[in-house]
Amino acid sequence: MKSFCITTLLLALFSVYASPDEGMIDFNDAPAVYVNPEVARISPDGHALEINLKSKKFAPVFIIKAGMLKCNTNYLISFRYRIDSPMTEDIFMAIVKEPKDPFFHFGIRSRHDSKVVNPLRFRALSRQMTNRTERVFVPDTADDFIFHCDAYGTGTRGVIEDLRIQPAIADKFIPLFQSGKAGTGPLKLPTGAKEFEVAKPNNPNGEVVDAEKFGVSPGSSDNTAAIRKALDYCRKENAAKLVLPKGTLRFGSPDGPDGSVMTFHGFRDFEFDGNGAFLQFHTDLRKQEKGQWNYFDIRNSERLRLRNFSVDWDWEHDPIGAMVEVVAVNGEDVDFRFCDYKYFPRRDFRIAEVRRMNPETRTFLVEDAHHHHYEFYNGKRIPQITWLSDNTVRVKDNGGIWEKERMHLFKPGTFYRLLQYYYDARVFHNAESSDISLEDINIYSVPGFMMQSRDRVKNWQLVRVRVAPPAGKPERVVTCTADTYDHERGFGNMKMIDCLFSFGHDDAINMLEFNYPAVKTGTYTVRTRNLKTGPDTLRPGDPIEFRCGDWSPTGVTAKLESIRPLNQEAQPKNTPWVQYDRKSWELTFADPVPDSDTDLVMINRAYHSGNVIIRNCTFDNIAGRGLLLQVPDATIENCRYRFVNGFNIRSGYTFRAWTEGAGVDNVVIRNCTFEHVEPNGWDALKSTFVVNGYALAQDPHSDRKLYRGLFSNILLENNTFIDTFGMAAYISSAENVIIRNNTFIDKTPRKQELPYRGSFLVENSKNIFILDNRYEKSDFVRNPGVYFNPADVENLVVSGNRLNEQKEPVSK
Predict the structure, then answer these.
(1) What tens digit of pLDDT does each residue of 669-700 get?
(2) Contacts with 719 (C-beta within 8 Å, 6 or more apart), sequence order
(3) Which residues neighbour 37 within 8 Å (Cβ) at sequence distance 6 or greater?
(4) Beta strand pairing status for 333-338 and 392-396?
(5) Residues of the chain whose pLDDT is less than 70?
């Protein structure tokens, strides 16, 4: 087969392909763009607008007229902007409160409908000149779409310049199937995680304790006090095992240590044997502002095993979620009917969020996705709820304009998953422990996370942990309202074997380190720009690696000496960023801080949460990502991902929201199946597999061309991709990515067929190899290939890929 290889020499030839002004909007071009003369003044060259909203709270700034944005097309929209007005608001809370500060609001919408629609909608705030790049897909039903900007806030002043609108698919395209000789393969193959064992409890002389002797009983309405007595005895006496009685055991007291029902603090060589018991939990979470109620809290323990039990919430009195049908919409009022209940048992229920679902398949990723926040955070922005019948309720939105403007997306006859809770509890919380095993455990539901593992945990595993609703209960439409599993700030070595995660509402797995954007203020000091994780994640003595703002290495790692809070009023008035209502912190180091033309990104190298093995696991019907991998050294093999929202390898930081990841290296993904992945998309590409970083933006977009080695040495081999929605893979800021010997089968039509379905997009990367992949003939994948930007892609090799002419049968 023919090989296509781009070398550095060819890149030099291609670099003159695009004009520097290609796609540039001339604001003087009246037929193409409307500029509001009451708000904006056009520069002589037509490339900039000076904005001044003198007396109104809102006004349109410009509108790119209908006709420029073509149907069924991806665009890159880029510009620079600056706001000169004072700002104090926390952008991260924009979804839960009215905007107060001056800002620019960008969006695309129908010319005939003033309401903003899904494809693009974001706010821009910055006191420094900031680049912004957005990728947007215009659907095939949108022949009258316009791109526009509005200004909010009396006294808003600022600048918007160098607006470009260009087709987003890259300059060049390589057809995937070509005849000829094969090209050069990769020079280095990733090896993935190193094998390791989690040590088992070793306490041969320890007592085996019967929990029933302490009052733990199926006949008790609340076993919390009794189980605490039993565990306290086991810890003090260094017991080897605690055995629960069979049957249903109920727990619910909210007044335990750290808000936990059962605490395993300071245990050594101990086993918690559930003996097949069914553990049911419940408490009134409406009384807790912060979701810190844990079923099991593990801290400072070694060689601890929890096994052989099932866990659930009390659905009979307090369902975590439900499928509802929209039966009427009137302004800000929506009438919901509970489909699986003649009488919904909790009349004072909280409605945290609703998200579109398919009522026939009971799947939660649909192409025409829509979700709406109500009382997302407990006690914040409470809607007005009126019962119309035993199973029909009217909900009046009581939030900010950001949710109210989306009310038109509710349509009678559509179905949603309604949640009462989100980040309100955890089954397992694991901290500062080693050699922890969870084995043969069924999790039926939790109003929050299944598990969070954080703070210097080392050597832990989940073996045959099953997260799924009980059989024969169609009303059980959710298991975990937050991420099913995440870990952060660890010491590495995590294993998942033969597990099932399903019916979750957020990411199935999120594995991350944190990063810390900052600016240098002295030879030995920096000021943080977003310490979202809190100061407790930084300790004196920690080695801090410094990166430039584009993630490129500075070569400097310095020892942290101290950290102290800075009062808001102590920040200079001319500071070019906004801390909003988060505190700023000053960090002092024993070694000099490197200079940088941009901001700095700090990585705490005291943590190393990688070396992850995920083997023989299934992730099915989850509204979040199947895996968000933000740590190095991982092996994922023989797993199945079905109806999940993508497989993402990411790292990034913002000054307003997420600061997660420290780069990813050495990942192997083999013998996995990806089926019906990414039907609604985190970005306009709707890619099954994403390797991408971000910086300086409001999540999740990227505003800066990042260091190309941020993601390195990634191997996808012998996997099967079934029914991709858009791109098979989007690769950016990467080096040495090998995609080889995979099979692609597309047999299901989509409501919206994307022209690049089954293709690849490569940007800002080098040494990318797409080799020997096999495609089954499909009417839905008509011209697969590799799109790339020749100006920033080096050594892209496309070789040996082939088409099987026998078509797969079409799914109905």
Answers:
(1) 999 999 998 765 545 567 777 877 776 655 44
(2) 669, 670, 671, 672, 673, 674, 742, 743
(3) none
(4) antiparallel
(5) 1-21, 86-101, 111-127, 139-143, 169-171, 179-184, 253-258, 288-292, 399-405, 567-583, 656, 679-685, 695-704, 807-812
| The 3-state secondary structure of 439-467, one letter per residue | EEEEECCECCEEEEEECCCEEEEEEEEEE
CA distance 780 to 747: 8
CA distance 333 to 121: 23
What span, in angstroms and rounded, lies between the C-alpha atoms of 639 and 615? 6
Residue 615's alpha-carbon distances to 461, 623, 713, in angstroms, are 11, 22, 20
Q: What is the DSSP letter of 402?
A: H
Give the per-residue SS3 of 563-588.
EEEECHHHCCCCCCCCCCCCCEEEEE
**And the tokens for 580?**
């909003």
640-642 and 618-620: which strand pairing?
parallel
Nearest to 740 by CA among 84, 189, 175: 189
CA 18 to chain CA centroid, nearest Å: 34
Q: Please choose, from the candidates 337, 312, 311, 305, the residue with its C-alpha nearest in 3D space to the C-alpha of residue 323.
A: 337
| Cα–Cα dist 798/206, whole Å | 61
- Contact predicate 540/561, CB 8 Å: yes
Dihedral sign (CA 84, 87, 92, 96): negative
